[in-house]
Amino acid sequence: MDTGRDAHLQEVALLGELTRLLLDTSGEGAEEVHRSVIAAAGGLGVRANLVVVPDGATVTVASHDELSTISVRGFPEVFRMDQVIALKPLLAEISEGRVGAAEARRRLSAITAARPPYPWWLRLLGIVLFALGFAPLMQSTWYEVGTTAVLGTVTATLAVLSERVGRLAPVLPLLAATIVSLITLEAFARTHAHGGPVLLMLPALFFFVPGDYLSAATAELAAGFLTTGAIRLVYAVFLLVQLYLGIVLGLVITGRSRHDLFDVAAASDLPRWALFLAWIVFTVGTVLAFAIPLRLLGRLLLLVYLTVGVQTAATKLIGEVGGTFAAAVALGVAATWLGRRRSQPPRIVLLLPGFFTLTVGSLGLRGLTALAGGYPIQGFHDLTKMITIVTAIATGLLVGSVLAPRPGAAPGA
């Protein structure tokens, strides 16, 4: 029996399966995938090399006088954070050489085969709460909240249905945007009294807005992963265009004028306490929608309020872009420092709710719809603002990760 070759094949299989799971959950980009796989290979005592793109990787493994190269495919998503959390301690054990390839494969298979922590109806509720928590950021009105409750239920139902009917997934943003546009234009935006139609639509569509892809693409470009960053950026724009086209299709089907896509907010009538509680609703929705264990709710909520607090205070002092950058730095420092601790979840899980509060991608969608509505100055202003804020967020998170102290290290160490 060729034990050396068998051991090599086990190591190749493990690193391939690990790469696939990391690709599927690559919300932080290619750099994290590359670093994790190389660290795992080092713990196994083998040499590995990766070439990573957003939906695949080529992995070369050298061990026991054998050399193998495999191709791995994966679709980048951030919906199963429970798997990311379960992977962290296993990855640490592999990297430290405390578990062999065969045992690691068994445990990795258990992680990938595990059922989501919440049933479908709780995930549906989570997406609705996610949208409701975001609604006051668009318009601070009870009408916005009520409209979002209806439209959010529609988009949540479509999102859950797409998991059971796989053929819907590629066109889900287009389908969701078209249906939301039809309902909004026909039922909720018949007059100008309640603000612009797009402002009524956005909270329900925010679940599909690719803010995470835009930010990850910017971070990858900054880190030198040019091909990966460019591809992810193109994919993010493609998703935005699907949402934009869905909204325009609703306009065409209802026969409304393109100038009805105005972008003016209604007068606020929500009390301050409702705005404060909205972040709790938002965070609970994020936990349920992205399969994060409930035991982490308190920590995530603190990070959300930290991000909002820093952004609000800094914006008053140095403007919106500066405030967003400062909030991203604060979130990056806190999430990186906590994420380095063995007892804490990975950095991406800690970043997720706070990152969404910075509301990146909706600016791009508002810019596209403003252009379609015949408002070129406002449209280009929103698109330019999106590029600036995406860069500010990605750079801020990167700076935060650099500034974060190592747990147990002396200041300045």
Task: Provide the descriptors you would attach to this structure in a database record.
single chain; mainly alpha; 3 strands; 2 domains; three-stranded antiparallel sheet; disordered C terminus; 15 helices; 69% helix; 413 residues
Give a quick summary of the entry.
The protein contains 15 helices and 3 strands.
Please give a structural write-up:
The chain has 413 residues and is mainly alpha-helical. It folds into 2 domains: 111 residues, no CATH class; 284 residues, no CATH class. Helices cover 69% and strands 6% of the residues. It is built from 15 helices and 3 strands. It has a 3-stranded antiparallel beta sheet with strand order 1-2-3. The longest helix is centred in the last third of the chain and has 43 residues. It is globular and about 75 Å long.
